[in-house]
Amino acid sequence: MLVALLVPVIQGVKTGDTGAGTLYVLKAVKSVALETPSTNFNYLPFLMVSGHPRYPNKRSLVQFEDLPVACPSSKIKSAKMYLYYLYAHKSRWHPITGIPFIPRYMQVHLVKKYWREKQATSSRPYSGANWTSPWLGLDGTDAERVPQEWNPVTILPGRPAGFVDFDITSAVRSWSSGLRNYGVVIRAVNELEAGIGIRFASNSYKDPEMHPFATVLCTK
Predict the structure, then answer these.
(1) In this structure, are residues 82 and 212 in contact, taking their beta carbons and an 8 Å threshold?
(2) CA 43 → CA 30, 47, 107, 121, 204, distances in Å?
(3) pLDDT of the chain along its 220 residues, tens only?
(4) What is the C-alpha to C-alpha distance for residues 149 and 159, in angstroms, rounded to an integer?
């Protein structure tokens, strides 16, 4: 992976010359799974996406470091978010015939409201405030209506553990142009369809090499 080329030289952000431009690696500064209205799951070592029968739906929030000013919006060629896929989850008492491993189609949306990692739940971004609808309103209120990439990232049965990448070029360009960086929300397009849920490593996962991060390729 290109990350091996990088060294921390600008504002603590790792950067390196790829030959095609400068690659910046942005660490996740906040990450949390959203499941219930009353419980904050910041302590969990994983991010949850999509529910399964008899359990609430699930989405997750991730926010990254700001891109250094040395890479303005006009020079951003591409940006990707990387999440480490751990496994597909169901409750032990659920038979696999009732909770099958169906493909999950993942999309991310730019978040438009401030949230606190240790307070966010499915109903609130922080104590004393509410999302416009559970798990964020994807209508331009809590998060943008249009996803970052129309073609969903598909998690198929039998997929091995490892990093999954999402295109977030539009979001990073927006933040670089002055929009406040509140990160993105990850959801499954078919999140309400009966099937196994997906779990990615969060910032609390024991191995820091599996934590979420983003890369931005900036032209010279």
Answers:
(1) yes
(2) 12, 10, 24, 12, 7
(3) 444 444 444 456 777 777 778 999 999 999 999 999 999 999 999 999 998 778 899 999 999 999 999 999 999 999 999 999 999 876 666 666 667 889 999 999 999 999 999 999 999 999 999 999 999 999 999 999 999 999 999 999 889 999 999 999 999 999 999 999 999 999 999 999 988 899 999 999 999 999 999 999 999 8
(4) 21
CB-based contacts of 220, cutoff 8 Å, min separation 6? 21, 22, 75
Angle (CA) 74 144 108, round 5°: 85
Q: Cβ distance 147 to 87 under 8 Å?
A: no
Q: Domain tally for the chain?
A: 1
Range of the domain at 15: 2-218
| Torsion (CA) 103, 159, 137, 127 in degrees, nearest 10 | 140
Q: Are 30 and 219 in contact (CB under 8 A)?
A: no
CB atoms under 10 Å from CB of 88, counted, come to 21
Structure tokens at 124: 């609130």
Alpha-carbon span 168 to 180, nearest angstrom: 15
Contact 59, 83 (CB under 8 A): no
